[in-house]
Amino acid sequence: MNVSTKRLDIVAEARGLLSALGVGESAYAAGGMAAMSPVTGEKIAEVATTTAAGAARAIEEADSAFRKWRLVPAPKRGELVRLLGEELRAHKAELGRLVSIEAGKIPSEGLGEVQEMIDICDFAVGLSRQLYGLTIATERPGHRMMETWHPLGVIGVISAFNFPVAVWSWNAALALVCGNSVVWKPSEKTTLTALACQAIFERAVKRFGSDAPDGLLKVLIGDRAIGEVLVDHPKVPLVSATGSTRMGRDVGPRLAKRFARAILELGGNNAGIVTPSADLDMALRAIAFGAMGTAGQRCTTLRRLFVHDSVYDTLVPRLKKAYESVSVGSPLETSALVGPLIDKAAFDGMQKALKQAGTHGGKITGGSRVDAGHADAYYVKPALVEMPKQEGPVLEETFAPILYVMKYTDLDAAIADHNAVGAGLSSSIFTLDLQEAERFLSVDGSDCGIANVNIGTSGAEIGGAFGGEKETGGGRESGSDAWKAYMRRATNTVNYSKALPLAQGVSFDI
Ligand code: UN1
């Protein structure tokens, strides 16, 4: 099959999916921003962009929508998210496929991402009948003190290419049941899936009826300048931003300057520890998925591995074999487990890191480019690098499938090394020893937002709070009580007595 035939195929397929998902042609036919597919490296559409004035207008409209939406009772708001979940169920195959085309995910991961959206919708629907406050003991007789949660306003969402639809849904599903509107700036690399989500959402709104105001979801298509409009706008009290630590270093202070809130979900440099008692078959599978899955382009990807020297020579040769034999190829045309990198810059970044690792004494398995029949697409063999110690590129997140493997002898030292990087997102220990497992989860164990036992670092469920510490930014999205970040808290004290006792015994008799 020659490249031009493939080109026609993928463009036609993307258009067919967009139309099935309800996206009008004017949104992607002749706009100013190229939509590329990493699968073939070709342009599949030209998306209409938002101007700075248009972005500001969208935020104003979303603010008006918020003012009406907050008055709709929360369980009713949940009904809209329930309908969104239904639409996602009905269109899972199409949206999952579009994710594969635009982000290069293998089919089960493209579909898995949509499943993650459905799951968070279910979670948010239940939440819409909760949003619990507290009643707190008061020192004053005849008084009641309580805490209530109110909608916050327009929630800005900035998302990355690697989870182009799920990360939006984690934020949007919670924001909506909490009574907010959403303005979303997706990655420039994944605009088509964003347009698809908007169309799916609009269908849910239509089914919901007139209680849903216009402007509950606005999508801004553009580059960094458009993201800045969102970050700097006074009518956006919270921005939830997923991306690099470098992006977070810009966004965080800008928000702080105007006292807006931030949920930052930034880089990860996630590690695993394989102890002497580990179930090595299980560890092998978990490591392979964590490190090679999604072509190493999850923020939760396993990037560092500390292996006890008593099991190193058993596990590492098996791992290397898995690296050598893993199938790499087009997620649309083959059943490969590893799809493409997002673009040439990602490939260059990977090669640079591998070169640096070599200068630090790293022994590299894999890492070279794979010819998948598409000259402008970047497929690579995942790389396993045995490192003498943790230094150089091991300390940084390179958004590509590189796993640095190091030997350890003492668990305390391994945990210290584990924690000695900037990021603090996800972590795991593979052990059947209760003391080791508990030590890893304890106060002076893993310093990450996610710490697992006998599970890899990636693939978290939506029910838990998702996010990490240190340079990962500290934000939490998704499950548990992450919803609280999307609301404002009011402490209310009600006096139902006939007197006016002052707190702290203060007297002020006039
Ligand atoms: C991300 O890479 O930005 O835990 C999110 C996971 C997924 C989410 C990853 N549920 O790997």
Secondary-structure map:
Layout: H1 3-21, E1 33-37, E2 42-47, H2 52-69, H3 74-90, H4 92-103, H5 107-127, E3 134-136, E4 143-151, E5 154-158, H6 166-177, E6 181-185, H7 191-208, E7 217-219, H8 224-232, E8 238-242, H9 245-257, E9 261-265, E10 270-274, H10 280-292, E11 302-308, H11 309-325, H12 344-359, E12 363-365, E13 369-370, E14 379-380, E15 383-386, E16 402-408, H13 411-419, E17 423-424, E18 426-430, H14 434-441, E19 450-453, E20 465-466, E21 469-470, E22 477-478, E23 487-495
Parallel strand pairs: 5-6, 5-8, 6-7, 8-9, 10-11, 10-18, 11-16, 15-16, 18-19
Antiparallel strand pairs: 1-2, 3-4, 4-23, 12-15, 13-14, 17-21, 20-22
Helix pairs in contact: 1-4, 2-8, 3-5, 3-7, 4-5, 4-7, 5-6, 10-11
Structure description:
- With 510 residues, the protein is of the alpha/beta class.
- The protein has two domains: 20-266 and 473-490, Aldehyde Dehydrogenase, Chain A, domain 1 (3-Layer(aba) Sandwich), CATH 3.40.605.10; 270-462, Aldehyde Dehydrogenase, Chain A, domain 2 (3-Layer(aba) Sandwich).
- It has 14 helices and 23 strands.
- The strands form seven sheets. It has a seven-stranded mixed sheet, sandwiched between helices. It has a five-stranded parallel sheet with strand order 7-6-5-8-9, sandwiched between helices.
- Helix 14 links the parallel strand 18 and strand 19.
- 53% of the residues are buried.
- Residues 1-8 have low confidence and may be disordered.
- Bound molecules: 2-aminohexanedioic acid (UN1).
- Belongs to the aldehyde dehydrogenase family.
- Keywords: NAD, Oxidoreductase.
- It comes from Neomesorhizobium albiziae.
